[in-house]
Design goal:
Layout lengths: L7 E8 H10 L2 E4 L2 H16 L3 E9 L8 H16 L3 E4 L1 E5 L2 E5 L1 H14 L4 E5 L6 H9 L3 E6 L6 H6 L2 E4 H7 L5 E3 L2
Parallel strand pairs: 1-3, 1-7, 3-4, 7-8, 8-9
Antiparallel strand pairs: 2-10, 5-6
Helix pairs in contact: 4-5
GO molecular function: RNA nuclease activity
Protein name: NYN domain-containing protein
InterPro entries: LabA, NYN
Length: 188
């Protein structure tokens, strides 16, 4: 039980590539304001765990190799900089082109390290928007340190291992329903 009047700490960690896959499964191709998305998730935390809460917004993505497509690189760079301007912490992994596709490296490690670090610094709540089973060991360590770990998952997302290890699963469809319709970019 948390002490009354205590200022709570929480963090929301979004794995961009995994989040986008889940959104695509729902017919959503993008979010016009990630800050609004974070705020709706934070409102869920406040409504369920206490409104005296400070929340860190964290976004994990990559930039494509500049030498392959400078326009795509510049657009992604501007996108990530706009997130920073909105007060969102942006962490970048590596991206390279292999076997006719882009390959991201380091994102899962960055998220796992942050999950454990937030627990070490006594964050009460950490939300992970990803269905990746690679986070299971980090979730276990965070929980061992007393952090309540929540996963933001779509109803159709299997994510069996993550669903079974987190303390709470937040329904992605419920969060989407609380966003203003013009915040969502839907498939045409």
């Amino acid at each position: 039980m948390r002490p009354i009047g205590k200022r709570l700490k929480s963090a929301i960690l979004i794995d961009e590539s995994n989040a986008i896959h889940q959104l695509h499964d729902m017919g959503i191709t993008g979010i016009r304001s990630w800050k609004k998305f974070y705020q709706v998730v934070e409102d869920y935390l406040k409504a369920n765990y206490g409104d005296k809460m400070l929340t860190d917004y964290n976004f994990y993505g990559t930039l494509p190799p500049k030498q392959l497509d400078e326009t795509k690189y510049n657009n992604r760079y501007k996108f990530l900089e706009a997130l920073k301007h909105d007060g969102i912490n942006v962490y970048r992994g590596e991206c390279y082109f292999q076997d006719n596709r882009y390959v991201e490296k380091g994102i899962d490690l960055l998220i796992g390290l942050d999950l454990v670090e937030f627990a070490f610094y006594k964050y009460e709540y950490v939300v992970v928007f990803s269905g990746d089973a690679d986070f299971v060991p980090a979730v276990e360590r965070a929980k061992k340190n007393g952090t309540l770990v929540l996963a933001l998952l779509g109803r159709e997302k299997a994510a069996f291992h993550l669903r079974n290890i987190v303390d709470v699963v937040i329904d992605l469809e419920m969060i989407i329903d609380q966003l203003e319709p013009d915040t969502l970019i839907r498939k045409s």
